[in-house]
Amino acid sequence: MSAPATGYIRFTNANADYIDIDLPVRPYKSYIVFPFDIQRLEYGLYGVYDNGSTYDKRYCECTFELTATQTATLNDFLRTDGTSDGRGKELTLEMNADSGFYPFGPDKSPLGPHDVSVEVIRRKGVGEAPFKYFVVALRIRKSDSSWTAYSLPTEVNEGPMTIGTVTNCRFPQQWFSPVVRYGYYVTQTEGGETLFIDRGSNSDAWQTSATFIMNNSKTAAILDYITGTARAQTFSVIAGTDHYMFERDKGGNGTYTVRLIENIIEIEHTRLNQFTFKIALSWEATA
Amino acid sequence: MATRVFGVEIELDDHASKVAADATLGLYNITSALGATASAAASSVTVADGTIFAARSVATIADDNDSETIHIDYISGDVLYLVEVLVNTYTQADNGRVDANSKFRWIQNEISGVSNWSHTMLSEQGIAPFSREIDLSSGGNISSPGKSSISIKNTSQFQDSLDTKTIFLNGAKATIYEFLDAVKYPVWSGVCDLLQWSAAQYTIPLRGNLNQRRTNLGTLISKATYPDAPSGTSGSMMPLTYGELRPTKNEDGIDTYSLARFVHTAKKQKAYRNTHKRVLMTNSDPNLTLQLEIGSQYFRDLQAFPVVDTESNGTFNVMFGTYGMKWTRGDGSTATGSFILDYFENMYVKIVLGSGDSAKSVGHIKKLSAVKVTMGTTDNLFELTVDDLFPSPPTGNITATHADQCWVSIVEDVSDYRCDVWPCRNYIDIDGDTHGLVGSRRYIDWIDLFVKGNNSLKEGYNDTDLVVSPAIYDRLPCQTFDDLNDGNNNHLIILPRLLFNDIDKALGTKTLPVQNVKLYGIEPTLVNFGYGGYKKRYEGLYSSNIGSVGSLVFNAATTDLATACTDRVHTTYAEYANEIFSGHKSFTAVEFQLPEFPVDLNFDKIHILLYITRTQTGVLFGVYKMFWDRFIGTAVESMSNENAIILRGFPDEYFATDRGLRNQYFFTETNSIALRYGFKNFEIAGITNKDIYETAERFVMLFHNDGVSGTNTDTIKFYQIAVMFSKSYSIGDKIYSPMQGRTTGGVNGDSWQGRKSPGTALIESPLEVLEHVCRLQNYSDIGKAPTLGWGKDYSSDALINISIGSVVTTVTNTIQVNTVAQAKRFRPRQQITISDGTNREIGIITSITANVLILESALSNSYSSGSVWADGCFDNPELISWSDPIKLARQITDQNAAYSDEMKRSLCRDMFLMNWVDRNGFECVKRIVKEEITPIDTVTLADIVDRESIIVHEPDPSDVYAEPFVSYQFDNDTGKPQKAIRITNADAESFSTSYVDGWTGASAEEYWDRCKILYKRVHEIGKPSKSITDLLWCNGIYADNNAIDNLKARIDWMYNPTIEFSVHYTKAYLWEEGHQFIINLPHQTDAADIECVLTGITIDPNPPYLIRIKAIMFKETIPDDFDIQDVTYLFGDSHDWIDNTTEYGNDNDKIDVS
Q1: Cut 0.80: pTM above it
Q2: Chain B hits for A182, Cβ within 8 Å
Q3: Are B684 and B644 in contact (CB under 8 A)?
Q4: Angle formed by the axes of helices B1039-1053 and B900-911, nearest 10°
Q5: Most A-contacting residue of B940, B1064, B1067 (CB-CB within 10 A), to test interface
Q6: Which residue in B has a C-alpha nearest to residue A186's C-alpha?
Q7: Helix/strand/coil (H/E/C) assignment for every residue in B989-1036
Q8: Which of B125, B155, B1065 sits opposite A47 (nearest CB)?
Q9: What is the pLDDT of residues B383-437, one digit of tens each?
Q10: Nearest chain A CA: its distance from B845 CA (Å)
């Protein structure tokens, strides 16, 4: 069976029946869901248990703009319950080598094949622009944990940051959003008096989050590092001058020991060679 | 500012085999090497680091050779002082150490100066709000357990660590601490409850440790503990007896019965049988034990033996075989000599066959003083000696052919009754008298005995009566019983000497001195007694010849007649010499009256027991006669002896000094022309019930001087005269008696930390009862079980709030108390009251140094005397002055009611007390009444966080009973109340005395008025539960007053609204159940001060650190012109707080203050 033509993706069922439809439009989103049990602790840091990469989940939410014919093809395939159809079945997703479609993140193969499930999550019907095209959004879930071998692209330097072992990463253009907790608490009574409980400086805590905009290679490298190496463990981040990653308290630059404190990373493929993703980190130490 | 952080400590139970510490889990061993050799019998142990241990905790001391459990009493530096001395010696050289229980210690975050606490375990908001609460909606109570919860991270698989280390957290003691900088204070304690966890979080719910101390004070009567208990009582509970239980009386006799139940704990009647090789004499050396070998099968299993001689001075011989027997030692050697056979200790001999004169003794049972055998010619004889003589002396001969031949059995005859296992104060009669239970002597009427009457209910009542069921008992003569005389006053034994054949068939007797004994002279002649020819010459002297009247001379060296005959002293007597001459004749006449009839006594017969002797000079002893006489009519002759010389019928124990006569004159039945012995010979025929008894105006005794020639002197010595009531009856499984119950000292004479010495006082005030129960609770978390077990004896580790001291001086914010020991009774953060009788104020302790209490703020006054005591202190002098006059009484016969928490709850409910455990674990007590002075704490709107959180709850209609009643005076046989006070017709227009049952007077009308208002509030008659209406501790003669006080308090309590609000942690973090404060709010209290008592507090140790308070508002403090409820009104006193009523047009109305 030949690969899908350029500009198409293919869903094939177990009976080798398949459909080819146009690639989804950008931007589309990929999600990495980690099997992390995260517990924020009273003193400000986090305890995280990682059940293992076997239990990582990835899925993609993408939108297709299809002609009526293609829409009929897709709908028939997903609606009809027959051995030659795809209703309620695990399917195989394949792309053309030139697809540029990274349904499960740029650190995973854009060719496939990937065992997936497909569900329609949204329809917009036929519309004005593009004229007479149907807009259909699918959620495509990777349904197993085995991956087709894929070599990450050669990294192309973008900036001064180091995340884990990935150097020369781009500074987040929207800067960091630190969250700082000083461990004293103020309560005002009806009489206007303000009353304090101070747990002391040992209860102070710092977190930060940032939305990174990076090229394919850096995004792939960082995701590969986080999902394959760092995961729930602490790792280092080197921030450049005046990054103030953890607000003023922890300095403009430095090497910080941090930990991922969210168990989902949302990656948006915005342009051909541009991805955005957001990560949230807790400050654990400064080197 | 100071840092304030919370932490939680969970204590394991591993001191004997400690788990491996793991700091990453926050698990720390509490262990220290010895600092010096700890020698056997030492009462203290020096360790390298004493600071890590806690007073009142359990630990293990061990070295390479030995180990043992120790209980740490207190700590001074590195010296641990122990509750009990060491058994073994432990040395540093052998790696001696002390291990206390390991602890999980989790803190919210690190604090400088605090080590061995992990800050990396607690989840965010991992210490949930912790609560303390008490439900006072129906009045007094014990606090509820309260709750909290701990959450820690489980991302490192905490549960696996527990499994690996075999740690079980359920029930483990948990304490929440507040760290103020590096100083920690306990703020809440509890135990771990049902555990649950997810992958992220391990959650340990906590509940208050109130129930951990629960124990059952009852002792089940089982075959194991009481092997001879009859089936009727086996499986039931030994009663717990408190206070003075005795009936109330009215002019008609006994009104209501309040009697202690004695349950049958042993009943056994078993005859000795000859058995081959039975050991009849034991010895510490088994080779010297003595056994009877019966070679001939013919003599085995015999249980009736012939008497072979005649009893003399209580001793006679019986034959247990004729041949084929020998006595051997344990080593098989043949024994020689005489031996007392201890096998027969506490056994009895019973005449089973007898003929002729011996027939009188058949069925009689007497206790054996000793059974002796003498080897040699009388190998086959038991020499029996009895404590009491038989009606006729046992007799027989060696061939068992005597005309009056007796046969006997040796029987083990056990029947006893107990009212408690705890030492009791005393037995009393229905008047509360104790009759001098001194040493081994006691009067024969020292106890009043009752059995359940044939009619179970008093006339006019029936079983369907919902409120009261007055009981009926039969008061019986009770000489049948005696105390075991072990000092515990709780154990009655049957005296088989008054049993006949059957262990359940007794002859009860009660003997009372007669009264008004004097010379007779009321009539001019003795015609009424059949001697009309004898005329009165002098008082007590009637003679037949006017020319020679004779004389009656009292010997002034003797005791006067009235005293001598009633003093119960066998050596005193009144002596009269009747002299007459030349063959003339005269009578000495003495009269007496029967004593006042004992209230409600049942009897079959009366006996006039006499101890009178006569000697003669020149005369023949003349006739003696006794008559009883009504106020008119012919006298009835009741006793006569032709030539009476000695008239004696008293038992030995009637007299204050034991006669040691084996009760010869009481039991031996002799009635000749000259002698009259034995109580049966003093029976007065015809007086068989109370009505007849009351008709007997007087008894007259006539002693005839049957003079011959010359001077004839009849000298009569009057020693004693008494009436004995007797009744034959069957003894059941329960008997009843007035009783003074448990003593403070208990089994081991405990002094309650030196406060109740010598410990023989009766426990009867509310505070005493409560502390007694608290001391019997289970303190296994900190201490060692008493030898008898929890609930059966006091715990040496009981935690009772006795924080009181004598004030020496005060300087600004310090109070110096008398001794360091007094200061040690206090703990930081206690609220104290200081008073010298003139000034009185309240403060908070921040720390204690030596004998000085340092307060949070300066005192307003100076003190150089008086007392200082902590909130909740059992020795609060104001509380004691309230409690001491109150006399409670109760007997608990139900296992479920004997749980410590149930006992405390019912007590607090009856007395409007509250009992709680403070943050340091000490039992506390307080009355739930308005404080005598204004509380120190005031809450205003300025203190409130979120005014919308203020909620006022009017009294819950389901807690308001417009026609309340209380039931009390419980019958310890049926468990039903015999009395009640009830308010009815609360919706009537005006008061009628018939609307209040069981309560009269102005206060009854006042409280009916209050109930009428309650009715107007709820417009229904609520149905209170028995847990409210049954005043279980209101029994005995003080029950009425206690019940009225309860009902008054309950009615007043039903007016109290409750309020809820939130304040910041710093405002109320020291408050506990019962804390009293003033609340003054612009809207809710109309800017008036209203006193409150805290019933619930929930403290959140997380931002925003709020404390939620729930409190009852004392309506007494609500001012008259404050109308917290729209429509209601009260009458008559400062308790009123309503603003609009003219209901009655008199002083009862509180007129229009609005």
Answers
A1: yes
A2: none
A3: no
A4: 80
A5: B1064
A6: B1104
A7: CCCCHHHEECCCCHHHHHHHHHHHHHHHHHCCCCCCCHHHHECCCCCH
A8: B155
A9: 999 989 999 999 999 999 999 999 999 998 888 899 999 999 988 988 888 865 4
A10: 21
